[in-house]
């Protein structure tokens, strides 16, 4: 079968793009993109009271940050209400749906009687087979004529065959009495019209699939493939809560996780490819398959996320990392870097990205680049700059000033100097960090010297040596 794969992400814009939604989007993106297919975005905004433009924007921003570019226009489900209505009327014409004039009271009375008699309380409308000539001129809904016997089998790519007896499915309403289409109809019609071949979504929608299939079947449309993914749980196996990380993806961006690490981690959340933990987008695109999706809920684990993010930061080219850092600064509301600082940052990147798991950590290490003279050391660094160490710095400075500005040379000069003073180099490192960065945790002092250059290094050392304590 050489049909082009079409997937979609269909969030309801009623809040932020949470981590579960982001994973669903990613799975759909990976599946389509890895097969030369199309990945569509549909905003399910039919609930007018709860849908907000801000939530739609948050979804678009979150997807942009994660690099999940969709194809074509964003589809608004609400804007397609006329089409949904038309399909209901078509089903009516075909005899696959009917007008039901039962009132709420009558439906309640039916249920009461059924309950008392120990029968199923699913409503069975007396209008299902009524002669249209007997129809009153009164408000009515349009119901689908669901099969009464047999079973509906969802051939799910993750869950296997899920069988639902048809006597468990009622003649669901397609159009309400005010003519508005119901959500279930909208989803089926949109998926069909958008040419969706694979519906990949959370398994909280598994039951809906049976109902949506009834609409497909009544219209004579070919069914899409279904893949219902188990939801994400917290590390304790319970439903994911805020404390566990059920946050908007924008929060993850603000915590400084790189998008590539996030994609890698989210891909592993419920899907696996052998023992592979760390992989590139190219590998994920080549490997991703529905058969690798697990049947039990994945557990969210910040430690794993951090670990993968650290590895992605280390593996990302410096210029790309700098670019993403600019985005991070904007996301946390920090002013942009000047061109000069950007250039220095890129130069410093090789030593900054070592062992940084987030952009927050990377920025901490970058303090020596971001700060300007005169440097005000933090408390720990200030403690390193006592009279003795300032004197030592003063003596060391001319040696460095005359050295060739290369890492090996600087290291050799510092070692020699330490030896001549009969001290361990380690003793020198603290004051040097304090003088160069104003911090006690920094990249290696020699890396900092190389990035800062001779003039700035000597100036910072001189400042520190001369400060009266
Ligand atoms: N709008 C639904 C949700 O946000 C998804 C519906 C679907 O994927 O079919 O949960």
List the keywords.
Rossmann fold, 3-stranded parallel β-sheet, 3-stranded antiparallel β-sheet, elongated, mainly alpha
SSE inventory with pairings:
Elements: E1 6-9, H1 19-33, E2 38-43, H2 53-66, E3 75-76, H3 81-94, E4 97-100, H4 104-116, E5 141-144, E6 151-156, E7 160-165, E8 173-175, H5 183-193, E9 198-202, H6 206-219, E10 225-229, E11 232-233, H7 249-254, H8 259-268, H9 281-287, E12 298-299, H10 302-315, H11 318-331, H12 339-352, H13 359-365, H14 367-370, H15 379-384, H16 387-401, H17 407-420, H18 425-437, H19 445-466
Parallel strand pairs: 1-2, 2-3, 9-10, 11-12
Antiparallel strand pairs: 4-5, 5-8, 6-7
This protein binds glutamic acid.
Residues 10-12, 44, 187, 201, 205 line the site of glutamic acid.
What does this 3D model show about the protein?
It is a single chain. This protein has 469 residues and is mostly helical. It has helices spanning 19-33, 53-66, 81-94, 104-116, 183-193, 206-219, 249-254, 259-268, 281-287, 302-315, 318-331, 339-352, 359-365, 367-370, 379-384, 387-401, 407-420, 425-437, 445-466; strands at residues 6-9, 38-43, 75-76, 97-100, 141-144, 151-156, 160-165, 173-175, 198-202, 225-229, 232-233, 298-299. It has 19 helices and 12 strands. Strands 1-2-3 form a 3-stranded parallel sheet. Strands 4-5-8 form a 3-stranded antiparallel sheet. Strands 6-7 form a two-stranded antiparallel ribbon. The longest helix is centred in the C-terminal third of the chain and has 22 residues, at 445-466. The chain is elongated. The model has no long low-confidence stretch (mean pLDDT 95). The chain binds glutamic acid. Glutamic acid is lined by residues 10-12, 44, 187, 201, 205.
